[in-house]
Amino acid sequence: MRALNNCPAPAKLNLFLHVTGRRPDGYHLLQTVFQLIDRGDVLHFTLREDDAIRRVTDVPGVPEQDDLIVRAARLLQAEVVRRTGRAPAGVDIAIDKILPMGGGLGGGSSDAATTLMALNALWQSGLSRQELMDIGLPLGADIPFFIFGRTAFAEGVGEALREVDAPDCWYVVIEPGVSVPTAKIFTSEHLTRNTPLVIMSDFSSHYANRSDLRGFGRNDLQQVATRLFPPVAEAVEWLGAYGDARMTGSGACVFCAFDGEDEADAVLAKVPAAWTGWKAKALAHHPLDAVPGFGK
Ligand SMILES: C[C@](O)(CO)[C@H](O)COP(=O)(O)OP(=O)(O)OC[C@H]1O[C@@H](n2ccc(N)nc2=O)[C@H](O)[C@@H]1O
Ligand SMILES: Nc1ncnc2c1ncn2[C@@H]1O[C@H](COP(=O)(O)OP(=O)(O)OP(=O)(O)O)[C@@H](O)[C@H]1O
Fold first, then answer.
1. In the chain, pLDDT over 70 holds for what percent of residues?
2. Most buried of 1, 143, 188, 290 (most Cβ within 10 A)?
3. Which EC class does it fall in (predicted)?
4. 68 - beta bridge partners?
5. So which residues are the catalytic ones?
6. Which residue, 148, 110, 121, 131, is CA-closest to 3?
7. Residue in 283, 105, 247, 265 with CA at minimum distance from that of residue 256
8. What is the CATH number of domain 3-164?
């Protein structure tokens, strides 16, 4: 096998996100539910004759050497060298980037996760899912989730994952047109860091017969982000007229759940022209999950 084309890197939504503490290294302890959705970037991998790792698509604002895709590929390549004493073939990586950066949709993390899974298959390196998750975590707190590949209740900094059921619903997502730097939100003096712990079954029982999150949890980062980025506040207020609108991750995107596609379409038709809006369906599994060799 010389190439793997059309590898999906789906986005995630944080259905709720509680900040429950802070570690001595400054990272925050979270409780969240990660939901995969059927919208994302698409990556293409072609092996090279030499051992170079190259991103062959220009991504505005992200130099090749800083790209999480390239950094993830290098880490896996180094791990293969450590295990076998031989460098695997280099790779050209192309990306169809559609997810906004600093959108809270986990785009960069998902790209990196797909890279680790695809190269594990192309190089036949045989690493387990857990080993790939361990390689990814230092690059981004959301990477282990994308490799885990199921709707997940997450704790720690997002790396302690348990599969959980969530409704098979539709989401309307609004991109308010700003990019939110995650670190700026977490370092704010206004961030509350002491939300009481919930237990996973609280979430499951709340969600048993409904798609609406109303009454369960919140996104603790939202208060800080809406204060710093007024367009995020405007999007929450606008979408909030149709249901429980919440921010995902550290923002900027805002989402709301709907039982049916028709309801989502009706709201989407009204999104003000100044914003980008789209719908997506909840995914219970990562689309690469069903492909053999991507992690075992
Ligand atoms: C907030 C979430 O979107 C929830 O899904 C993610 O945990 C953020 O993940 P991410 O964008 O991949 O962020 P990272 O690159 O890991 O971290 C960026 C910065 O955010 C802060 N950060 C991030 C995650 C976390 N649990 N605590 C933190 O304090 C740290 O200052 C870190 O330097
Ligand atoms: N392949 C990549 N795609 C997007 N961003 C990347 C990539 N590689 C590095 N980055 C950097 O990571 C930053 C965060 O991008 P990303 O799209 O993951 O944010 P996000 O959706 O807010 O993520 P999260 O929900 O994890 O906070 C970008 O601003 C960019 O500088």
1. 97
2. 143
3. transferase
4. none
5. 12, 142
6. 121
7. 247
8. 3.30.230.10
- Ligand number nearest CA of 22 is 1
Q: What is the ipTM of this complex?
A: 0.94
The secondary structure element, H or E, covering residue 37 is strand 28-47
CATH architecture of 170-283: 2-Layer Sandwich (3.30)
Residue 94: strand pairing partners: 44
Pocket lined around ligand 1, Cβ cut-off 6 Å? 14, 17, 26-28, 30, 32, 104, 109, 140-142, 157-158, 182-183, 186, 249-250
Atom of ligand 2 nearest to the CA of 109: 18
Residue 295 has pLDDT above 60, yes or no: no
Show the tokens assigned to 43.
Answer: 């990556």
Report domain extents, the chain. Answer: 3-164, 170-283
Q: Phi and psi (nearest 5°) for 150?
A: -130, 160
Q: Could you report the per-residue pLDDT of 169-218, keeping only the tens digit for each?
A: 999 999 999 999 999 999 999 999 999 999 999 898 887 767 677 778 99
Paired with 219 in beta bridges are 17
Question: Cβ distance 252 to 178 under 8 Å?
Answer: yes
**The residue type at 71:** R
How far apart, in whole angstroms, are the C-alpha atoms of residue 194 and residue 196? Answer: 6
Residue 28 token pair:
């925050």
Whole-number Å distance, alpha carbon 21 to ligand 2 midpoint, is: 24
